[in-house]
TrEMBL record:
SUPFAM superfamilies hit by this protein: S-adenosyl-L-methionine-dependent methyltransferases
PANTHER family: METHYLTRANSFERASE, N6-ADENOSINE-METHYLTRANSFERASE TMT1A
Methyltransferase type domain mapped to chain residues: 73-170
InterPro entries: Methyltransf_11, Methyltransf_Superfamily, SAM-dependent_MTases_sf
GO biological process: methylation
Entry's Gene Ontology molecular function annotations: S-adenosylmethionine-dependent methyltransferase activity
Record's keyword terms, sorted: Methyltransferase, Transferase
Organism of derivation: Pseudonocardia broussonetiae
Lineage: Bacteria, Bacillati, Actinomycetota, Actinomycetes, Pseudonocardiales
CDD domains, per the entry: AdoMet_MTases (cd02440)
Protein's recorded name: Class I SAM-dependent methyltransferase
Pfam families the UniProt entry points to: Methyltransf_11
Length: 321
C-alpha cells in the first residue's frame, strides 16, 4: 500500500490560519488547492508552444551539450510543466517528478501518462530529497527555488543526488527588481479587471464572486509561499557555497515581463476558457517579440539584475561515470 500523503484541495479555515506562519504548510495547501486548475491558470500546455519555451530556457543557461541526459529529477514539479516538456524536447529520456504538494504530484503523473512519458513521481521536500546519492544525471526546477526556505540546503541536496558530472538547471526565479515591478503591474491589472467587469455590459466577463473571494484568500497564502527574490550575483554565490562547479546565473524578460504579468493576471481574473486559443497564441507571439527585443537589444544596455527571470545552472564535480 502507498504511504504517499493525499491531496487536500479544500483546506479548512484553521489550516489556512496555521499556514500563515508555516511556509511549507502554506505551500502544500496553496498548491493542492491550485493543482486542478493550475495548467489553465498559467496557460500551461504540452504542445509545441510550451515544449519550445521550456527547451529555450534550458538552452539559454546550459546549452545543448549532453542531450539527452539519462535520468532527470524535477523538484517542485507542479503539474510537470518543465520536465515533461523538456523530455518531449529530447533533453532527458526518463524522469521523476516531485513536489511538496501531493495534488501537484498526482497532476504531473496524470499529464506524464497522457503524454506516454517514462516518468515516476513522489511527494518530496527539496530540502530533504528522498533519493540516494548519485542517482540522477540532471536535476531541474521551474519557479520553485523562491518557495524553499533554505535555498543553499536544497542546492546541497541537489548536488548530493546528482551523479558526478551531472547538471542542475533552475529557471523562472524572480529577481528582486523584477518582482517589484511585476507585482505592481499584476495588482493594478487585477483591480482594473475586477472593477470593470462589475459593469452590466461586461457581466459575462466576470468570474462568480465566490471564485474571486477564493482567489483573494489564496492570494493571502501566496504572500506566505513566496519567500525569496534573487539578486543574480548572490544566487551564483549561494550555488557555489552549496558546492556547485561553474555556477552561472543568466537573466531574461524585461519588456516581456512588463507584458506577461498583466496578461497572466487578466487571464486569471476572467472566467476560465473565456479567452480561447486565439488569445493564448496572440499573447504568446507578443511575448516572443518582446523577448527577442530583450535578448537582442535591451540585454546590452539594461543591467542583468533588472530583468525579471533568473536561471541558474551548475554541475557536480568529480569524474563523470
Ligand atoms: C510556482 S509552482 C511551480 C510549479 C511548476 N514547476 C511550474 O513551473 O509550473 C512551485 C511549486 O513548488 C512546490 N514547492 C514549494 N516548496 C517546495 C519544497 N520545499 N520542496 C518541493 N516543492 C516545493 C509547490 O508545491 C509548487 O508546486
Amino acid at each position: 500500500m502507498s504511504t504517499e500523503p493525499l491531496p487536500n484541495p479544500h483546506a479548512t479555515a484553521e489550516e489556512v490560519e496555521a499556514a500563515r506562519h508555516d511556509a511549507k504548510l502554506a505551500n502544500v495547501l496553496y498548491h493542492d488547492w491550485e493543482a486542478g486548475s493550475y495548467d489553465d491558470k498559467w496557460s500551461i500546455s504540452y504542445d509545441e508552444r510550451c515544449i519550445t519555451y521550456a527547451a529555450d530556457r534550458f538552452r539559454l543557461v546550459a546549452g545543448e551539450t549532453g542531450w539527452p541526459y539519462g535520468r532527470a529529477l524535477e523538484l517542485g514539479s507542479g503539474t510537470g510543466f518543465f520536465l515533461l516538456n523538456l523530455m518531449q524536447a529530447g533533453v532527458a529520456t526518463s524522469g521523476s517528478v516531485t513536489d511538496l504538494s501531493p495534488g501537484m504530484v498526482q497532476a504531473a503523473l496524470r499529464n506524464a501518462e497522457h503524454l506516454g512519458l517514462d516518468v515516476d513521481g513522489r511527494v518530496a521536500d527539496a530540502e530533504r530529497i528522498p533519493y540516494d546519492d548519485g542517482t540522477f544525471d540532471l536535476v531541474v526546477g521551474h519557479a520553485v527555488l523562491h518557495h524553499i526556505p533554505d535555498v543553499e540546503l536544497a542546492l546541497r541536496e541537489v548536488l548530493r543526488v546528482l551523479k558526478p558530472g551531472g547538471r542542475f538547471v533552475f529557471a523562472g526565479e524572480p529577481t528582486r527588481i523584477g518582482d517589484a515591478y511585476a507585482r505592481r503591474l499584476g495588482a493594478a491589472t487585477w483591480k482594473a479587471t475586477t472593477t470593470l467587469t462589475r459593469l452590466p455590459v461586461l457581466q459575462g466577463w466576470r468570474r462568480p464572486q465566490a471564485e474571486l473571494d477564493e482567489s483573494s484568500r489564496a492570494a493571502a497564502l501566496e504572500a506566505v509561499v513566496d519567500i525569496h527574490v534573487f539578486d543574480p550575483a548572490e544566487l551564483e554565490d549561494t550555488a557555489r557555497r552549496a558546492g556547485a562547479m561553474g555556477a552561472t546565473v543568466v537573466t531574461e524578460e524585461f519588456s516581456a515581463a512588463m507584458l506577461g504579468w498583466p496578461v497572466r493576471t487578466f487571464e486569471a481574473a476572467v472566467p476560465p476558457g473565456k479567452l480561447g486559443m486565439g488569445w493564448a497564441m496572440f499573447a504568446y507571439r507578443s511575448w516572443q517579440r518582446l523577448s527577442w527585443l530583450d535578448q537582442n537589444v535591451l540585454s546590452r544596455v539594461v543591467p542583468r539584475a533588472w530583468f525579471y527571470n533568473a536561471l541558474v545552472t551548475g554541475t557536480k564535480g568529480g569524474p563523470v561515470g
